[in-house]
UniProtKB/TrEMBL annotation:
Protein name: alanine--glyoxylate transaminase
Family the UniProt entry places it in: Belongs to the class-V pyridoxal-phosphate-dependent aminotransferase family.
Enzyme Commission number(s) of this protein: 2.6.1.44
Cofactor(s), by name: pyridoxal 5'-phosphate
Residues that coordinate or bind substrate: 345
Residue ranges of domain Aminotransferase class V in the record: 23-298
Pfam families in UniProt: Aminotran_5
Keywords of this entry: Aminotransferase, Pyridoxal phosphate, Transferase
CDD domains according to UniProt: AGAT_like (cd06451)
GO cellular component, as recorded: peroxisome
Length: 377
């Protein structure tokens, strides 16, 4: 129940144990086609250009940046946690001019702030993280795609810990490029990074004046293996078992339906917060509209947080996590990057997002807080 990987669905683990097919054999190419089809549903796009990058979420991140930016071009990075910081680092390595649009951990960006930055810098790419898992912030994308179009900017969104857990309408919202990860709301093992480009984004890649600096992640080559351009040729050995897993994960998503899946994530988030609040715990993210349902962040450090209540001294967050693991077999995580030592993080994602698991998390919190005399036994 940490911020990922979530437990994998047993159906997905079973799919992953099936015999290997050759990575260029027609039956396997059909499985790749079905993965692409499932991803279209998941991203809510009609774009032909979906695939699963071979690697974890970072592979998707690096693939998007390496292909969408040429040396000397500008990227504005919405940076409100560890992922924005990493994108700044990565884009710099590929020779981009990086504008680090930083805001406090625990906050999202308003459309007005994003518009001002894009109008000022006219970047080739605007990066936003829909679900900031180091802070538990949900970034609204309302109006952002349209604003980017007006300014000739591509909108790139990280959905590693949000895709499948919260709404995403890539086409309707004008999101040009998205990457994600397999191990969070999709309930598969880590190792696959779903990615999507729309026509605008693909055109940008095809009109590059310079070669993509990464051979392994070059979408001219990887896209060809996934059939984006008509023919299909070998680029690297496809991750056969991983893509069986992803195909099964996408089938499970389609069986439940996205609306039902998003509602399930919302419901367990509410259930958990009802319980946590009854113990006197509070969300790290002050604005209710900014709270991410998939990765929940809970104030853990003694002291006062903004306008919120003060957390009493004497609560040892790490001791609570250790007790949860030792006694309940439940992973509760601490903070990361800007939130290290300040919060607990509880993931409610995919296969794990169910009421019984929330009850277990609440029992572990209750017990941990009682042991530390924060709650009466
Ligand atoms: C929002 C977000 N982006 C990117 C990543 C990186 O993904 P990975 O660790 O799978 O490479 C993570 C991982 O936790 C994440 O939560």
């Amino acid at each position: 129940m940490g911020p990922g990987p979530a437990n994998a669905d047993p159906r997905i683990l079973a799919a992953q144990s099936l015999p290997l097919l050759g990575h260029m054999h027609p039956p396997f190419l059909k499985i790749m086609d079905e993965v692409q089809q499932g991803l279209r549903y998941l991203f809510q796009t009609d774009s032909k250009y979906t695939l699963c990058a071979s690697g974890t979420g970072h592979a998707g991140m690096e693939m998007a940046i390496a292909n969408l930016l040429e040396p000397g071009e500008t990227i504005v990075v919405g940076n409100n946690g560890i992922w924005g910081t990493r994108v700044c680092d990565m884009a710099g390595r590929f020779g981009a001019k990086v504008v680090n649009l930083q805001t406090e951990a625990g906050k999202s960006f308003s459309l007005a702030e994003l518009t001002a930055a894009v109008e000022q810098h006219k970047p080739a790419v605007l990066f936003l993280c829909q679900g900031e898992s180091s802070t538990g912030v949900h970034q609204s994308l309302a109006g952002v795609g349209e604003m980017c179009r007006k300014n000739g900017t591509l909108l790139l969104v990280d959905t590693v810990c949000s895709l499948g857990g919260v709404p995403m309408y890539a086409d309707a919202w004008g999101v040009d490029a998205i990457y994600s990860g397999s191990q969070k709301c999709l309930s598969a093992p880590p190792g696959g990074a779903p990615l999507m480009l729309n026509d605008r984004a693909l055109q940008k890649v095809q009109n590059r004046k310079t070669k993509v600096r990464s051979y392994y992640l070059d979408l001219h080559l990887v896209g060809d293996y996934w059939g984006w351009y008509g023919s299909r040729s070998y680029h690297h050995t496809g991750m056969v078992s991983m893509w069986y897993a992803l195909r099964e994960a996408l089938a499970i998503v389609a069986e439940e339906g996205l609306d039902a899946m998003w509602a399930r994530h919302e419901a367990v988030h509410k259930q958990m917060w009802d319980g946590l609040r009854s113990m006197g715990l509070e969300p790290f993210v002050e604005d209710p509209n900014d709270r991410l349902v998939t990765v929940n962040t809970i104030k853990a450090r003694a002291g006062c947080y903004g306008a919120g209540r003060c957390v009493p001294a004497g609560v040892d967050w790490a001791a609570l996590c250790k007790n949860a693991m030792d006694k309940y077999n439940v992973e509760i995580a601490g903070g990361l990057g800007p939130t290290a030592g300040k919060i607990w993080r509880v993931g409610l994602m995919g296969y794990n997002a169910k009421p019984a698991n929330v009850e277990l998390v609440l029992a572990a919190f209750r017990d941990g807080l009682q042991q530390q005399n924060y709650l009466k036994a």
